[in-house]
Design a protein that fits this description.
heterodimer; A: 439 residues; four-stranded mixed sheet; two-stranded antiparallel ribbon; flat; B: four-stranded mixed sheet; 3% strand; disordered N terminus
Chain lengths: 439, 845
């Protein structure tokens, strides 16, 4: 091409300041005045520089055809048809069918700002981008796993191995065994906790108080030791200790272990009679409730539960709405019921706060029957409150369910997409490496 | 040549103008020199790509970015032959290259060259997009992650659907009667009892059966009313004698029904295992066990124990209400849904269990210090939590403290949430399945109506429609899933016929003729006539379907005598490849085949069998087999279901004949073509020779005219033929041929990719067409089974390759098995044959 004399780019300008462009085989003639509306865009720049026969023209377009006087761009004609709208209407709509991510790339090529994209298409774009972000996080996780081989020192390799063993049940058979053992121990400890409260199984201690039988306590201790060992191993093998300690799952793990040791130390202090007896007992009781946290440990082993937490996290707004609806309903209907039931001599509604309970039970359609209206007006009120309760629950629950279903269905697909992404990256890096070696 | 055939001249000319449109390359002129091509490529910086009519313009430089793909290769092709391998047509003066592909997908593919990012058109079907990718030689792994999620989701969905379809097909084909003893009667009985829609009597029987079920359940519940109960000598309540009689009658009916079903069932073990039959058995057994226990223990004094056992068995009588499932689609789909969504059900139970655990322990700690509380322990408060979370609320236990009430309120709301979450997924499963079931029922009815109509008189149009509908459902499965291995056989023909055809003669007709042949050109000559290809395709589909659905069947067959024979044939085929000159007679034989449908069919079978004759030493055995095969349609008449199939195939062939024969530009040319092929052919000698001696009477011209007359009789068909003769831009013949190319393009392509990609990619391509499939295999069992099918057929292919044989012959060998299946006891193959036939037909139309 260098032997060919420099073409006269000015010839590309038709009469009346028009410019002919050929985008991937589609010819378009554009008016220069219109193009100047966005002076920083590629076409406007082309117009300016071609008028001056400048040298930058070849960098702006891919080819120039002097015979037909048109500038050639090796781009997608479909996207261009949408993008050129910006010169006329000041806004861009993504044509249905073109991937928005791809479209944004085209816009960047034509040097058009993203802000001109219309609102209706922006949501579409953001949806896609969010999906991409999710995939990216998954890819990051996978890549981190792959980095194992790069660890040099022995200690690092050990740490990696341990981390995989504890955190990635799918990676190897021992890891799966560990996961199953941990799952079983969670179940066993939960069952033991429940069994310990059955009065028939309890035994009296020296002070005549009912406590858990020693056999159950032994199992409990064993489970606790296992949990502790697990937690410590995880902590030791974690690449980022702070990140690990703050993550949701590990906070739950910690909550499940902590009460046991606190109770242990308190009873030790108790025997050494440093503190008052009653206080210690109360503290122990409170801490016993925290043992329930161990049930949440199951979430580590069930993707469904993780989905649930994710869906709830995503739909906090809807949950708030649900609670607000319920709160308003409870307040209104309990107050109404209280006033209406005052006429009855043997009323069960003694105060408004007391009738809150009735309102909750009625609105959620549970209906224990411990408190119920006796007057006709009160009964009418109860019927209305029941209907309102059904609606108040049903309306905000729908988006929550939707979130859950969408996420549940998407999870698996995203997983595969992430794996593909990793493979694609490998492929590209491999190709680059090959190219380099060839050069 | 054309002057002699004024009627077909128009079509012929049309095809020639199409050919001439290629511009510099007229049919009579020589292909352009490599110098011209090189010159044209250096002249233009850009290139015009015409894909399915949509012009695109792109820089050569851009195409060079991916040199191993189809478009990248276009740059490197400097000879006419290599160019024609890559694109479908070209015009050097216009600098335009034509590809006969879907234009929509190409936009995104071209953008991949431009930007290096592969995105997918939103509205494109994932499957068709993947086929396009294969054609252009791009691996689907390059798909950007934003589109990949959608792509895989769709692919997964599709695969699941196909799997379900395949399962249904297998189920439908399951009830074939292979045992010999009073086959017909058993078949009739089976239809009567199992298919209520098959006849009025069957319907009445079904209604009676339902009435008995209802009656027995009513009797069962009435029996427990204290007013109706009698007291026996020990003072215990016992059954009312009248109701006991009703019970006995019902049980007798159920027993009889079950036994008859069992006796008439084609596969006893499968019947025994069927869930509905297990329910039937469970509904009957308790009665007999009760009788046995009470009779045998009357004198013995373990009265209490026996009584308890009897009570348990009485409870099991409730199971008979489930017998209604046999008569209700809704109940069946409910059962199926529950089975399919056990994952979600598990999730629901897990959620509930966790909620119950948490709230019961919370409420226990809140309430345990209360006076005479009912929350005595955590297990005791489980009940309260369950009743609260499901919002039943009996009120036998309820919290009394403030803390307990707060926990109770939270429990209510959490319960509502937790139960509501997984249920939509189950509901979705149910509705999907229910829809599917309804659709199948409708399809079944339609098929039966069609059958009846066909028995009364041939309805070609319906038949065609049906064929279309079916193939629309199944075709993709076939092509996508298991066609690949076979396709690889085809790829040579796809890519090599052009140069070969031109080498043989410069006429377009001959070129297109060669195109039809399967396998590489050298050996493909062996099977010359055009319609044999249709047969061949059909056989391939059969073969494919077989490997897909019953992989072990092959192995079984292989071990039999027939299998051994086939091996002999295959081995014999290798040395026998020397070309022998014997063409004319065979050509005549083929012409005759057009004269009537019956002779066509027989001729087709001849062709199928002939190669075996040529190479098999056990000639008489082959003869016998051919005999049996030609009778197979008649044999199918015996059986109710097979009858329709036989007829259907027949009609199909009929309809298939019309378009091909009419669109043929000239009959004499046809003959000439066959002559050509005959030059190098060596098989088909004995049989067709005999035939041509016997009935080569009618002249070719009159034949074709007769045929066109016949086609005019049915408007559907004539419309069809005109449509096919009108199809631009290629000659009608090409249009008729296109199917072979299109159906299998995707394998030819996978091979193409193999050649294309880098070494490491190459490895992966061989091991599995796409890594995604590999990945998915781990995640879903359905998927993995699909892959297994593919693998199975891959083995086949490998075996053929190892024999160093042309695909034609290996196909031949396999085909032998298929024949024996038609004839022998395994009538199961029949429907598949039909299906395969329809599919090919559609494509060829």
């Amino acid at each position: 091409m260098w032997t060919v004399p420099k073409p006269k780019y000015g010839a590309g300008l038709c009469a009346e300041g028009q410019i002919a462009v050929n985008i991937g085989g589609v010819r378009a003639v554009l008016v220069g005045d219109v193009l100047k509306r966005y002076p920083e865009s590629r076409l406007a720049e082309l117009l300016r520089s071609s008028a001056r026969d400048s040298d930058v023209v070849p960098s702006l377009c891919d080819d120039f055809d002097p015979a037909r006087g048109e500038f050639y761009f090796d781009r997608d004609p479909d996207a261009f048809k949408c993008i050129v709208d910006v010169y006329y209407f000041g806004e861009i709509h993504i044509k249905r069918g073109i991937c928005p991510v791809c479209f944004i790339k085209e816009m960047e090529f034509w040097k058009i700002d993203q802000s001109v994209l219309d609102e209706c298409c922006k949501s579409y774009l953001s949806e896609k981008e969010e999906e991409l972000r999710e995939i990216a996080t998954k890819v990051k996780v996978i890549l981190e796993d792959l980095e194992t081989e790069r660890c040099v020192t022995r200690a690092q390799r050990c740490q990696r191995f341990l981390w995989k063993l504890m955190e990635k049940p799918g990676s190897s058979l021992p890891a799966r065994v560990v996961a199953i053992a941990s799952f079983v121990s969670v179940l066993v400890s939960a069952v033991v906790m429940c069994m310990g409260t059955i009065p028939e199984l309890q035994v009296e201690d020296a002070e005549g108080k009912l406590v858990e039988p020693p056999s159950l306590e032994a199992i409990e201790t064993a489970c606790m030791l296992w949990f502790t060992a697990e937690y410590l191993l995880r902590l030791a093998s974690a690449p980022n200790k702070l990140h690990f300690a703050l993550s949701f799952m590990n906070v739950i793990d910690f909550m499940a272990i902590m009460p046991f040791y606190v109770v242990l130390s308190l009873t030790y202090l108790d025997t050494s009679s440093v503190m008052e007896l009653g206080n210690v007992q109360q503290a122990v009781q409170a801490l016993r409730i925290m043992r329930i946290a161990r049930i949440f440990k199951l979430a580590r082993h069930s993707s469904g539960l993780q989905t649930l937490t994710y869906a709830l996290k995503r739909s906090l707004k809807e949950l708030g709405l649900l609670l607000m609806y319920m709160g308003v309903g409870i307040f209104v209907f309990s107050a109404l019921a209280y006033t209406m039931e005052q006429s009855h001599p043997e009323t069960l509604f003694r105060s408004i706060p007391q009738s809150f309970w009735w309102a909750i039970i009625t609105m959620t359609t549970v209906g224990y029957g411990d408190i119920y209206p006796k007057t006709t007006l009160g009964k009418c009120n109860a019927a209305v409150s029941f209907l309102c309760g059904v609606i108040a629950i049903a309306l905000p629950i729908h988006p929550i369910i939707n979130n859950f279903v969408v996420f549940y269905n998407k999870q698996k697909v995203l997983e595969t997409a992430a794996k593909h992404e990793v493979e694609l990256m490998e492929l590209k890096s491999g190709r680059e490496a090959r190219r380099k070696s060839r050069d | 040549m054309f002057a002699s055939l004024p009627t077909t001249k128009v079509t012929m000319e049309k095809s020639f103008t199409d050919m001439n449109k290629v511009g510099s390359r007229s049919t009579s002129s020589l292909p352009p020199e490599p110098v011209d091509i090189l010159q044209s490529k250096t002249c233009f910086r850009r290139v015009r790509l015409n894909v399915g009519g949509l012009p695109h313009e792109v820089l050569w430089r851009t195409l060079d970015r991916l040199p191993r793909t189809r478009l990248g290769k276009l740059r490197d092709c400097n000879t006419h032959e290599s160019l024609m391998e890559v694109c479908d047509d070209y015009n050097l003066e216009e600098n335009e290259y034509f590809f006969d592909r879907h234009p929509g997908a190409f936009t995104s593919i071209l953008n991949f060259y431009r930007t290096g990012k592969l995105h997918m058109m939103e509205e494109m079907c994932a499957l068709s997009f993947s086929q396009e990718l294969d054609y252009w030689g791009i691996d689907e792994i390059y798909l950007e992650s934003c589109c990949q999620a959608r792509y895989h989701q769709k692919k997964e969905q599709m695969n699941e659907e196909l799997k379900r379809e395949a399962d249904n097909m297998k189920d439908r084909e399951g009830d074939e009667f292979d045992n010999t003893c009073c086959k017909e009667k058993r078949k009739k009985l089976w239809d009567l009892l199992e298919k209520p829609s098959s006849s009025v009597a069957a319907k009445i029987l079904a209604i009676i059966s339902i009435l008995f079920i209802v009656l027995s359940t009513v009797a069962l519940s009435l029996n427990t009313l204290p007013e109706l109960q009698d007291t026996d000598e020990y003072g215990h309540a016992s059954d009312n004698p009248q109701l006991a009689h009703v019970e006995a009658v019902c049980i007798a009916w159920f027993t009889m029904e079950y036994l008859l079903r069992f006796l008439s069932s084609p596969n006893k073990w499968k019947f025994f295992k069927g869930p509905l039959n297990v329910i039937d058995l469970l509904a009957i057994l308790p009665y007999y066990v009760t009788i046995f226990l009470t009779e045998s223990n009357k004198s013995v004094l373990q009265f209490q124990n026996v009584r308890r056992v009897v009570q348990i068995f009485r409870i099991m009588r409730i199971l008979r209400i489930l017998k209604l499932a046999r008569h209700s689609t809704g109940l069946q789909s409910l059962g199926f849904t529950l089975r399919r969504s056990y994952n979600e059900l598990g999730l629901l139970i897990l959620f509930l269990a966790m909620g119950i655990m948490i709230f019961s322990s919370l409420v226990f700690f809140a309430e345990k210090d209360e006076e005479d509380t009912k929350f005595k322990s955590i297990p005791a408060s489980f009940w309260w939590a369950t009743i609260t979370m499901t919002t039943v609320g009996y009120g036998d236990i309820y919290p009394k403290t403030l803390l307990g009430k707060i926990v109770g309120g939270l429990c209510c709301i959490a319960g509502v949430l937790v139960i509501a979450l997984p249920i939509p997924i189950i509901v979705n499963n149910f509705s999907e399945f229910y829809k599917e079931q309804k659709r199948q029922e409708k399809a079944l009815k339609r098929r039966e109506a069609l059958e009846r109509a066909k028995r009364n008189g041939s309805i070609v149009s319906m038949n065609l429609k049906e064929a279309f509908a079916r193939s629309a459902e199944l075709m993709d499965v076939v092509v996508e899933k298991s066609e690949r291995p076979h396709d690889n056989h085809l790829s040579p023909s796809r890519w090599k016929w052009n140069p070969k055809g031109r080498a043989a003669s410069e006429t377009s007709s001959n070129r297109s003729f060669n195109a039809q042949e399967l396998g590489s050109p050298n050996e493909a000559r062996v099977s010359s006539p055009q319609r044999l290809n249709v047969q061949k395709l059909e056989e391939m589909y059969n073969q494919m379907a077989k490997t897909q659905s019953q992989p072990n069947l092959n192995a079984k067959d292989r071990s039999t005598r027939a299998g051994k024979q086939r091996d002999e044939i295959e081995l014999g085929a290798i040395p026998d490849h020397g070309p022998t000159v014997l063409g004319t007679r065979e050509g005549v034989g083929d012409m005759k085949s057009l004269s009537s449908i019956d002779s066509y069919i027989s001729c087709a079978t001849d062709f199928q069998e002939n190669p075996r004759f040529a190479h098999s030493s056990a000639l008489d055995h082959g003869l016998q087999e051919a005999h049996r095969f030609s009778h197979s349609p008649a044999a199918t008449l015996v059986q109710h279901s097979s009858l329709k199939l036989g007829q259907q195939t027949k009609v199909e062939r009929e309809s298939m004949l019309f378009p091909t024969s009419v669109t043929k530009p000239s009959y004499s040319e046809n003959a000439r073509k066959f002559f050509f092929s005959g030059n190098s052919s060596k098989s088909l000698i004995p049989k067709s020779g005999c035939r041509s001696e016997g009935e080569s009477g009618p002249s070719p011209l009159s034949d074709s005219s007769v045929l066109s007359d016949r086609s005019l009789l049915s408007p559907e068909v004539s419309a069809y033929t005109t449509a096919s003769s009108r199809t631009p831009p290629k000659s009608p013949e090409n249009a008729a041929l296109a199917p072979t190319v299109f159906t299998f393009h995707d394998s030819s392509i996978s091979k193409y990719i193999d050649a294309d990609t880098d070494d490491d990619e190459h490895l992966r391509d061989i091991s599995d067409t796409s890594p995604s499939e590999h990945l998915l295999a781990g995640s879903s069992p359905k998927r993995s089974s699909n892959i297994n099918f593919q693998k199975g057929s891959n083995h086949l292919e490998v075996a053929h390759k190892m024999m160093g044989q042309n695909c034609l012959f290996s196909m031949e060998g396999i085909r032998g098995v298929a024949h024996e299946n038609h004839v022998g006891p395994e009538m199961t193959r029949r429907p598949k044959l039909e299906r395969g036939c329809q599919n090919t037909l559609d494509k060829s139309l």
